[in-house]
Amino acid sequence: MRPDSTTLVELEQERERLKREISELPDMRQGSLTPVYRKCGKPSCHCARDEDPGHGPVYLLTRSVNKKTIARNIPPQAVETVREQVAIFHHYQELSRKLVEVSIQICDLKLKNPALQLNPWVPGGSGKFASVW
Q1: In angstroms, what CA-CA distances link 91 with 79, 86, 100, 107?
Q2: What is the Cα–Cα distance from 15 to 23, expressed in whole angstroms?
Q3: Greater confidence, 3 or 90?
Q4: 110, 116, 20, 128 alpha-carbon torsion, rounded to 10°
Q5: Cα separation of 71 and 118, whole Å?
Q6: What does the buried/exposed string (b/e) look like for 37-51 if buried means 16 or more CB atoms within 10 Å of the residue's CB?
Q7: What's the pLDDT band for 129 if we cut at 50, 70, 90?
Q8: How far apart are CA 39 and CA 56, in angstroms?
Q9: In degrees rounded to 5, what are phi and psi of residue 121?
Q10: CA 102 from chain center: how many Å?
Q11: 60-82: per-residue pLDDT in tens?
């Protein structure tokens, strides 16, 4: 949607649709699910050969928390569930990006026409929209 070709009502409807879609998302989790193969170190094991990837895969879910990478082993029976949860998180990120873009377009339209600013948000208030009159 472009601000010069979309009305305020259309943008607000799109914003509400995105918020509704976000609120209906099932469980999600942030991170990357990666298969890991390891070599055991025994010289007679198949994994000691250069062309062998090693034992595995063991799946690790990694994510960054406070600039540190946290890794968690995922049991084989949970890999598909975790993969779906990570995909849902990526969808959430895309919806959030779209929501911000629509919000920016709404703000831009309201800047062009101050009469459209009916209920400004009061920072530090109860978190609800309130009139400043």
Answers
A1: 18, 9, 14, 24
A2: 12
A3: 90
A4: 100
A5: 47
A6: eeeeeeeeeeeeeee
A7: low
A8: 9
A9: -80, 140
A10: 17
A11: 999 999 999 999 999 999 999 99
Give the pair of three-digit tokens for residue 127: 């978190």
- Tokens for 71? 């890794």
Q: Name the residue with tokens 């007679």.
A: 44
Q: Is the Cβ–Cβ distance between 107 and 15 less than 8 Å?
A: no
Quote the tokens at residue 109: 């339209």
Give residue limits of the domains in the chain: 8-115
Q: How many residues does the chain have?
A: 133
Ramachandran angles phi, psi of 31, nearest 5°: 140, -175
Amino acid identity, residue 122? V
